[in-house]
Amino acid sequence: MRARLSDIAQQAEVSEATVSRVLNDRPGVAPETRQAVLTALDVLGYERPARLRKRSAGLVGLVVPELDNPIFPAFAQVIESTLAQSGFTPVLCTQTPGGVTEDEYVEMLLDRQVSGIVFVSGLHADTAANHDRYRALIARPLPVVMINGYAPGIAAPFVSCDDREATELAVAHLVALGHRRIGLITGPDRFVPVRRRVAGFRAAMPRLAGVPESELDELAELSLFGVEGGEAAAGRLIERGVTGIVCGSDLMALGAIRAARQRGLTVPGDVSVVGYDDSPLMAFTDPPLTTMRQPVAAMAVAAVRALVDEINGHGAPHSEYLFRPELVVRGSTAVVRQSGAAPAGPTPQRPVPPALPIPA
Predict the structure, then answer these.
(1) Crossing angle of helices 192-204/163-176, nearest 10°?
(2) Range with the lowest mean pLDDT among 129-138, 239-248, 337-346?
(3) Which of 9-23, 98-112, 251-265 has the highest mean pLDDT?
(4) DSSP 3-state assignment of 200?
(5) Which of 81, 131, 80 is nearest to 103 (CA)?
(6) Measuring CA to CA, which residue among 116, 242, 101 is closest to residue 185?
(7) Three-class SS state of 7
(8) C-alpha–C-alpha distance, residues 333 and 273, integer Å
(9) E strands of 209-315, at which residues?
(10) Inter-residue contact 77 to 297 (CB < 8 Å)
(11) What φ, ψ does residue 337 adopt, rounded to 5°?
């Protein structure tokens, strides 16, 4: 044991007496010193004494709609690590088409006596869904937090990216590049984020691009989320002569690029494309994708803190917290091509990593 104490003391850069006090859970040791000794134990491969093992504060459910869209694994990773730092054990529930539903996952989580649930882009974002399911959870009482999608009448914290502002910023970026014929692609109308994006588009286009409201209907295409939905909607907009496209997700933007290329057009030479999310790998596509970045880390941490406050009885405010999106300019947007002019190159930017080709 003396040798082990010596090894641990050397690794933690403290005395053997200090190591002994920490291992026996005695007072008189500064928190940072105690943590240094525990870290040394972990690094050297020694098992912590039972009294020093971190106890789980309980299980917390994390319900996400899918993992195909890279933005959802990004949210899950930050939420899970933040929960673990607070002593909670996350339980990830992923929905798939034809698989376990959100309500079925909730029943499973209740059977496991979870301390709370985080919903990411769940049925709370669907205006056609019955939100009494959430009111029933709150009445149990069970703390819940919702990410991306606000539903009035639910006494819970909501954390969202400002979808309306994101669309307005995207339109402003394209207008600054000389585009006036700008289209919008997003998902089904029943979702709250979609309605907010459409509202931002309809507000920005007359004000920034000078497009009359009577022309806006033909410039907005609602489709299925995903590459295929983006490709189909972009094809219709390109046939109507748009030179810039604002998309409701990065995957839809990849579909829009594919639609342009299938028609012999170049991006950004003929059509500029703006995505939404800044999900992983978007800097490596061909061309690197200009997109509206969701502040995933900040949103996830805020959601976990609100949930932990609810669990601890501190009562986080039951309102919606809106986080500001960020425009990330890359190579999929450029100055609009003038009639008869040479193809316009991308806007000046820093060197980007090697690109991953988007299939035609």
Answers:
(1) 40
(2) 337-346
(3) 251-265
(4) helix
(5) 131
(6) 242
(7) helix
(8) 6
(9) 220-222, 244-247, 272-277, 290-293
(10) no
(11) -75, 125
Question: 117: part of which helix (H) or strand (E)?
Answer: strand 116-120
User: How far is residue 296's CA from residue 277's CA, in Å, rounded to a whole number?
Assistant: 9
CA–CA gap between residue 131 and residue 93 (Å, rounded): 19
CB within 8 Å of 225: residues ≥ 6 apart: 69, 187, 248, 249, 251, 252
User: How many residues comprise the chain?
Assistant: 360
Residue 45: other Cβ atoms inside 10 A: 6
Residue type, 284: F
In angstroms, the CA 149 to CA 297 distance is 17
Q: Rounded to two decimals, what is the model's pTM?
A: 0.79
Residues 139, 100 contacting (CB under 8 angstroms): no
- 309-344 as b/e: b if 16+ CB within 10 A: bbbeeeebeeeebbbebebbbbbbbbbbbeeeeeeb
pLDDT at 350 over 50: no
DSSP 3-state of 172: helix
pLDDT in tens, 165-203: 999 999 999 999 999 999 999 999 999 999 999 999 999
Report the distance separating Cα 182 and Cα 274, nearest Å.
Answer: 11
Which tokens go with 177? 């590049």
SS3 147: strand
288-315: per-residue pLDDT in tens? 999 999 999 999 999 999 999 999 888 7
Closest to 120 measured CA to CA, from 83, 52, 73: 73
In the numeric block, which tokens belong to residue 333?
A: 């947007």
Q: What span, in angstroms and rounded, lies between the C-alpha atoms of 153 and 285?
A: 41
